[in-house]
Design a protein that fits this description.
Elements (H helix, E strand, L loop, with lengths): L22 H13 L2 E5 L6 H12 L7 E5 L9 H9 L9 H9 L4 E6 L5 H14 L3 E7 L9 E4 L14 H5 L2 H13 L10 H10 L4 H9 L6 H7 L3 H4 L14 H10 L3 H10 L8 H7 L2 H4 L3 H10 L4 E5 L2 E5 L2 H13 L3 H21 L6 H10 L1 H11 L2 H4 L5 H8 L1 H6 L3 H14 L5 H18 L2 H18 L2 H18 L2 H21 L7 H20 L3 H15 L6 H17 L2 H18 L2 H17 L3 H18 L7 H18 L1 H12 L3 H8 L19 H11 L4 H8 L3 H15 L4 H11 L6
Parallel strand pairs: 1-4, 1-5, 2-3, 3-4
Antiparallel strand pairs: 6-7
InterPro entries: AAA_22, P-loop_NTPase, Sig_transdc_resp-reg_C-effctor, TPR-like_helical_dom_sf, Tscrpt_reg_LuxR_C, WH-like_DNA-bd_sf
Organism: Rhodococcus oryzae
Protein name: LuxR family transcriptional regulator
Length: 788
């Protein structure tokens, strides 16, 4: 007679709350069990190792004829009593005169048994020794252990248990997407247990997502937060999570003491660390969003870095205080927010926080200056990737550099960092963020060195122009030129001329842009030719290249192809030996504009596609969008209106993402409007809308593949597009087509003007249109009823 799972021996407890998610982790743990007799689940306290081990053990029961036995070690304080604790869990009687270890071996040597050893970290040595002894003597025994630190036994397979997946709070989460998120599902389940009427709604959806994100998907923290739903709304819980240790203090009274509050859980981990590990934990809490070893060595005091620094770091990884992440060829280390906050408290209590922040700031200033100095070179893509990884730390450093404690001693440090990051921010499309930091810097420090201010005014003006903020771009250029004239030195005057040239470019005055740009470029060339000191700085070379690009656009679009080509050759002469991609891509794009103006679409296609391939190396969304737009213009000239509409849609999506426009310079707007008009005339509003929406739905990689001919698209011409609009939006679309203003629509539908405006914007967005005229044409062509 076959024994059922329920009849098999063992002592697994019945769980009183539902088990949420963890399919991947369960599968992986079972896989590791099939390859090793010792599997250890590791992870930070509160991540759910115990619950996961119980679920894996329950799912494994069929494989163990002699049962699955759970041994709780959390309350064991004397490692010498470990064998007795295991024996008691197995229900073995005491036999005077015999060692308990021998008793365990005799009992388990002939049995198919799974032992679950839970919470081993504080008796690690004893557990490792006993596990090794039992596994050698008992061929059919398997052990599943949970520990914040690996056991270090031969043959051990380790699985790190990650936090639960959390929603992306950078976007407004939908209810459907939230339902599939493990962290949210856990919060909702535990909140409903406390308050049966609780439900996830459109109203509280974003707050619940924010809670789970702030708590890093840590199950214990999420459960403790969900308990608060008895007295608070989700929005109130999120607001109060600034002090998570104070808020998350009400847990299960029957849970182990260390798991009843988040603080006690982290206290337990802290007490298991050596004094050196505790000190390093505190110092490393100054980082935000992870760090690499060179940064850790750079900010920690000498006494911490000397000697066995790497061993201490490794120990913190083993203890699950630090999380290890492989990013390409690089290893990054990081802490959960709960662990980081705890370490920051210890750092503050020791009086070392200000020193740690100053060292953090100094190290990241050196990092960005190294990045700037090597930007125009073969390591350009490496530096972009590094600065991408360090954005959280850079933001912290910039914020700290604006505090009174720093401004009073070094008013230029913020400006030096921001100016050094100009090219990085530009190529990553972080225009709004860059301008926010520069704006704060320009207004917060009157003591900033004039030379730094001149450069920042120039940078901010260029960024404003890229955003299409022409008034602000012009104002910054005026301020830059005025200050440069006061200083009077060659480099400042050079920067002022670049600012004048770009102001003219952005305002659409091509002729006025030529003279100041030529003057600045000649000054830079003269400086380089003298060979004074160590030659021009990297930032000065970057401005020279930018000036050449601006001059190429101004001259090429004015009909001076010879000057435009000469500028391109100069850019290549500087960048090609250095194996640089960013400026070469921009130069190829400008060359494409000149070729398109002369009607040479073959050359325009070749050089624009080259620009697109080069810019993909540095993943610049701004230039990628400009290249897609240029290829759309070429497509209309070559009689491919569908391709043009798709590319216009893709370019529109990218420009919205970075807060720029797909046709930044005024005289390029005519190309944009002509392309849109020709494609609309050729396709009709309905087909144009379909193709445009296809482009807007593409990811960046998909759009580039399509532009380069690596991806084809198919469109169902028989599919009606009306159902993409709600009944109300269809009604609004008809009123727009009838020529009514938003104010009139609001009056006719008895809604507020703001709501009417929102409906119109939704219609434009859904249909992929940019004007009310397109809506009218679409309504007429589709002959839609007012209700779809």
């Amino acid at each position: 007679m076959t024994t059922s799972v329920k009849e098999k021996p063992g002592n697994l407890r019945v769980e009183l709350t539902s088990f949420i998610g963890r399919r991947h982790e369960i599968t992986e743990a079972r896989r590791l069990q099939s390859t090793s007799r010792l599997v250890t689940l590791t992870g930070i306290g509160g991540v759910g190792k115990t619950r996961l081990s119980l679920r894996v053990a329950e799912d494994s029961r069929r494989a163990f004829a002699d049962g699955v036995w759970f041994v709780a070690l959390g309350d064991l304080h004397d490692p010498a009593l470990l064998p007795e604790t295991v024996a008691a869990a197995l229900g073995l009687p005491d036999r005077p005169g015999r060692s308990v270890s021998r008793l365990l071996i005799d009992h388990l040597s002939t049995k198919q048994t799974l032992l679950v050893l839970d919470n081993c970290e504080h008796v690690l040595g004893a557990v490792a020794e006993l596990a090794q002894t039992l596994l050698r003597a008992c061929p059919d025994l398997q052990i599943l252990a949970t520990s914040r630190e690996v056991l270090g036994v031969d043959g051990e397979q380790v699985m790190r248990v990650p936090p639960l997946a959390v929603p992306d709070t950078r976007q407004v989460p939908s209810l459907e997407a939230m339902a599939n998120c493990e962290a949210v599902a856990l919060f909702v389940a535990r909140a409903m247990a406390c308050l049966p009427d609780f439900a996830l709604t459109e109203t509280n959806c974003a707050a619940v997502a924010g809670i789970c994100g702030r708590l890093d998907g840590l199950p214990l923290a999420i459960e403790l937060a969900a308990v608060r739903i008895r007295a608070m709304t989700a929005e109130q819980i999120l607001q109060r999570l600034t002090d998570r240790y104070q808020l998350l203090t009400v847990g299960s009274r029957v849970a182990p003491t260390r798991q009843q509050t988040l603080r006690s859980c982290v206290d337990w981990s802290y007490e298991l660390c050596t004094a050196r590990e505790q000190q390093l934990w505190a110092w490393l809490s100054v980082f935000a969003g992870g760090f690499e070893l060179d940064a850790a060595e750079g900010i920690c005091p000498e006494e911490l870095v000397n000697g066995d620094f790497l061993d201490v770091v490794s120990s913190l990884v083993d203890k699950s205080i630090l999380a290890r992440e492989q990013v390409g060829e690089v290893v990054r280390l990081g802490m959960s927010e709960a662990i980081r906050d705890y370490g920051r408290e210890k750092l503050h209590a020791s009086g070392d926080l200000p020193q740690a922040q100053r060292r953090h700031l100094a190290w990241y200033e050196q990092l960005v200056e190294r990045a700037e100095s090597e930007w125009i070179g073969p390591r350009q893509t490496d530096w972009i990737a590094r600065l991408d990884r360090e954005q959280s730390n850079l933001r912290d450093a910039l914020a700290f550099s604006l505090t009174d404690a720093v401004v009073g001693t070094d008013p230029d440090v913020n400006a030096r960092i921001a100016n050094a990051l100009f090219m990085f921010w530009s190529c990553r499309g972080l225009l709004a963020e860059a301008r926010r930091w520069m704006g704060r810097s320009l207004t917060s420090s009157d003591a900033m060195k004039a030379e730094e201010r001149v450069e920042m005014l120039y940078c901010d003006g260029v960024l404003a122009g890229m955003q299409g903020q022409l008034g602000e771009a012009s104002a910054r250029a005026e301020q830059c030129c005025s200050l440069a004239a006061q200083l009077g030195d060659a480099e400042s005057l050079e920067i002022g001329n670049y600012a004048r040239g770009y102001r003219a470019l952005f305002s659409g005055d091509l002729a006025a842009a030529v003279e100041p740009l030529q003057t600045a470029i000649a000054s830079a060339g003269a400086s380089s030719a003298t060979g004074a000191d160590r030659g021009p700085s990297a930032s000065r070379i970057g401005r020279q290249l930018g000036g050449l690009l601006g001059l190429a656009i101004a001259s090429g679009l004015s009909g001076d192809e010879k000057t435009a080509d000469a500028c391109h050759e100069q850019v290549l002469a500087i960048t090609t030996p250095r194996e640089e991609s960013f400026f070469r891509a921009y130069s190829s794009w400008t060359l494409g504009l000149t070729a398109l103006r002369t009607g040479d679409t073959d050359r325009a296609t070749t050089v624009t596609e080259l620009a697109l391939r080069l810019i993909r190396k540095v993943n610049d969304p701004v230039m990628t969008g400009w290249c897609l737009e240029s290829l759309a213009w070429i497509a209309t000239h070559e009689g491919e209106p569908t391709r043009a509409a798709v590319l216009m849609g893709a370019a529109e999506t990218l420009s919205r993402t970075v807060g720029s426009t797909s046709a930044t310079l005024p005289y390029l707007l005519a190309h944009h409007e002509e392309c849109e008009r020709l494609a609309l005339d050729a396709l009709g509003a309905r087909a144009y809308g379909e193709a445009f929406r296809t482009g807007t739905a593409m990811s960046l990689d998909e759009a580039v593949a399509y532009a380069l001919g690596d991806r084809c698209i198919t469109q169902d011409r028989t599919t009606r597009v009306a159902p993409v609009l709600t009944p109300r939006e269809t009604e609004v679309a008809h009123l727009v087509a009838a020529g009514h203003s938003n104010k009139m629509i609001a009056s006719m539908l008895v809604i507020s003007p703001r709501t009417a405006q929102g409906h119109v914007e939704h219609v434009l967005s859904k249909l992929g249109f940019t004007s009310r005229t397109q809506i009218a044409a679409w309504i007429a062509e589709n002959q839609l009823d007012r209700t779809p």
